[in-house]
Amino acid sequence: MTITSTILGLLAAALFAAAAALQHRVTRAVAQARGDTAGHWLPVLGTVARLLSSPVWLAGLGCNVLGFVAHASALHTGSIAIVQALLAVQLMFALPMAYTRTGRPPTARDWLGTAAVCAGLIVLVLARGGVEQTVRREPLPAVLLAAIVLIGVLLTLARSRLGRSARTALTGVAAGTGFSTTAVLTVVVADQLATRGPLTAALDWPVYALGLSGLVAAVLAQEAFGSGSLPAALTAMTVADPVLSWLWGALLFDEAPPAGLAALWTLTLAGAAIAAGVALLAYSPTLRVGAEGRPAAADPAPSPVEG
């Protein structure tokens, strides 16, 4: 894990945080104007034209594109497990954004969540940062099939008559699964570009799978944003993505997979600290107010298009 990949990973997290903040507000407003669509498959697809007409939503899309470039560069130079875990800090970047919007300073809970995420990342880097990386493609079809099945199961459950928070969380986990497979395919395609050239990469199937995976993950993220609160959606995505990325990465890219009880316990504790910190930050009153805006008397609700 190089300093360059760490910086690029943090830059990607900042850009993704800005994108989520911009797009959630617009997507949620459009979804509320559309009415209850519980039981429908991906109702966000019916709002694409309105989303594309919003300058705020398009600004978020621009942040997402720049974030992907930084993210892909980080994945090419570092470990997928650590780069994906670095994305958890996007909630930390969301704190100053919320403060700028509302003037509400971070609370003790925010600092505790930040400390937990940082501690988990430090342990993860110390435990796995020096592991050599390779690219093994043989298990790749099985990994993609497992991800497709998991997304299908999650969306089927989300389509049932569950509460709004459960639907948002399930869709967020599905989006996180999509982002984890996108990260895997980014590593494979970047390695092929570097070792065999763009023509060979363009003629091989992973580059097309990468485009499809990225599109699916983006649609699922917008569906999660439209179905409920930003904290619920971001928590699910931010926890599912690094957990599954660690699993896929251990199968495909780690030259020396973790072995022994001590290594597994270390990684478990690191993951638990990151997940706990993410939960504390995502459900912080600071971020909730920042996502929802000021009370109506001080900040009228945005129009569905202008955000």
Task: Write up what this structure looks like.
- It is a single chain.
- The protein is mainly α and 307 residues long.
- It has one domain.
- 77% of the residues lie in helices and 0% in strands.
- It is built from 13 helices and no strands.
- Keywords: Membrane, Signal, Transmembrane, Transmembrane helix.
- It comes from Catellatospora citrea.
- InterPro entries: EmrE-like.
Question: Helical residue percent?
Answer: over 70%
Secondary-structure element string: HHHHHHHHHHHHH
Shape summary? globular
Number of strands: 0
Based on secondary structure, the structural category is mainly alpha
Main beta-sheet strand count, sense and barrel state: none
Total of domains: 1
For the residues shown, what is the average pLDDT? Answer: 78
Q: Helical region count? A: 13
- The Cα radius of gyration reads 19 Å
Taking pLDDT < 50 over at least 5 consecutive residues as the criterion, the unreliable ranges are: 294-307
- In whole angstroms, the N-to-C terminal distance is 39 Å
In percent terms, what proportion of residues is strand? Answer: under 5%
Protein name: Magnesium transporter NIPA
Keywords: Membrane, Signal, Transmembrane, Transmembrane helix
Organism: Catellatospora citrea
Transmembrane segments: 80-99, 111-128, 140-158, 170-190, 202-221, 233-253, 259-283
